[in-house]
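Lab notebook, bench 4. Still working through the backlog of constructs that have no structural model yet. Next entry is a single chain of 594 residues. Request: give me the structure tokens for it.
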Amino acid sequence: MSTSKVWIVVGIGVAGLLIIAETRRRLKKNVVARINEDFGAFVERFEILPASQPPPPAARHPLAGLCFAVKDVFDVKEYVTGFGNPDWKRTHDPAIKTAVAVSLLLKNGATCVGKTIMDEFSFGITGENMHYGTPNNPESLSHIPGGSSSGSAVAVAAGLVDFSLGTDTVGCIRIPAAFCGIFGFRPSHGSVSTIGVLANSQSLDTVGLFARDPSILRQVGHVLLQGSPSELRRSKRFIFADDCFQLSKAPKQKSVHVIKKATETLSGYQQPKHMNISQYIASNIPSLKGFHEGSGNMQQGISSLKALSSVMLLLQRYEFKSNHEEWVKRVKPKLGSDISTHVLAAVNSTHENIKFFYKVRTEMRAALNSLLKDDGILVIPTAPDPLKLNSKKTLSSEFYDRALALLSIAGMSGCCQVTIPLGRHDGLPVSVSFIAAHGADKFLLDTVLDMNSTLQGQVSIASNSLPVPDTDGDMDTSELLKEKGNAAFKGRQWNKAVNFYTEAIKLNSTNATYHCNRAAAYLELGCFQQADADCTQALSLDKKNVKAYLRRGTAREMLLYYKEAAQDFKHALVLEPQNKAALQAEKRLRKLAA
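Model written out:
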């Protein structure tokens, strides 16, 4: 070959490489531009116009002028439903019909503008997707958006649409609503049509929605609920699940206190009550007893919710396997690591006692309906605190255990739940949830709208409030109060003991023993968050307080912070190497971690 021809070949090769490099650069630039433009919420953009407005004097469509997006599990005619996974999209044909829920919204005047990114196969609650990217949380770009309906939540939070559709199986609407600081509605199971929606677990799946404005949430919710009966005006009865609030780091001043103050201001609201929902579940779901784990102390904690969430996950795995095992084994799709764990666990699972899972579900619905009746609303924190992107803690068992414990209440009962944003704490969204009886969806949506302006006013007040510092007092009096507290503790009068220790602390806040003793009483009452705080204070005053390490370790184990609990028991063993309680606890935690 001549020299000139060689140079021609080399030139063509270099040009080809430059073209490839430029193409990749432009593709990357387009992806970055897309993320900057829509926060990475959409997997596909299009526009489907609503039904024509009827001529006057007929009323305008109720959703006229509103636009929405849908999670990529909803069939839209002539588009492939992707299920969050390229291999699924590659092996399936375009839909021949549009999902009933989407058609209903179009019929009532709303415009559909695209499909949103999701966790693969509606598994996962982080909102991350290795194929299409993780949507950016507009409330905090450094934190996960939550999933699996991540793109739908982000599209609403970013103001790209007025509302969006998602699905909720084990928290897929509630988690992203909480993390993105918006309203999320999980309807009663079976109350909104799932025809034309890809199933993860049909006994748990619900079609729900996100909105920034509670009036839009109510308006769209009423359209989706169609023929369900209108709710009569009636009094509202709030019940706070105190044990659930132990799982949230947001101060009660910004959650429980805000709601209490709002109910005092509004008419038609009864005096709120408090309860331990885990104990109620343990007493009213007899089929759940076989799933309780741990020691006697654990029974006083949230073990019933842990057991309930275990049944929920087993039920999900069983139904996902029934729905998709053949496709998974035939196609062998490429999956994200976290999703792969869920899918393999489902496909490889065996369930001899599946009837038992359904029995727990039936008992749970009956128990919650009995508690709430037609006027009750259970108040819980929606989720644990938002996690940072790419955090190892994102996939930790602690995060999942705490999240699923909260999510299992509505998940396994099939009751309706609304996630409500209540401002911010430490720069991150604060969220609570209202749960009403199965079928009381319109009552719940109406209540949320009725309370919202008052709630937000109380949020503003709470944000500007400062905690009142403790004051020191007379030493002799504080010792006398401590002894009275000890006597009450020995007499198993836990609340009285807490009151005496509290009075002693008011007089002398620098005594580690007072805090440590009050922590012991709090543990007996199941107030694990308060026990943790007291032990932390005791250790700040006395770093060699073995009892404080043991009690804080116990509190953190009850709150499902296994890693931190193990560290406390290790500290206790450094100080007392033969301490039996610490040795047993460390062994128990190693077993849990395994």
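Notes after review: The chain is about 50% helix and 10% strand. Residues 550 and 569 are 6 Å apart (CA to CA). Flag for follow-up if needed.
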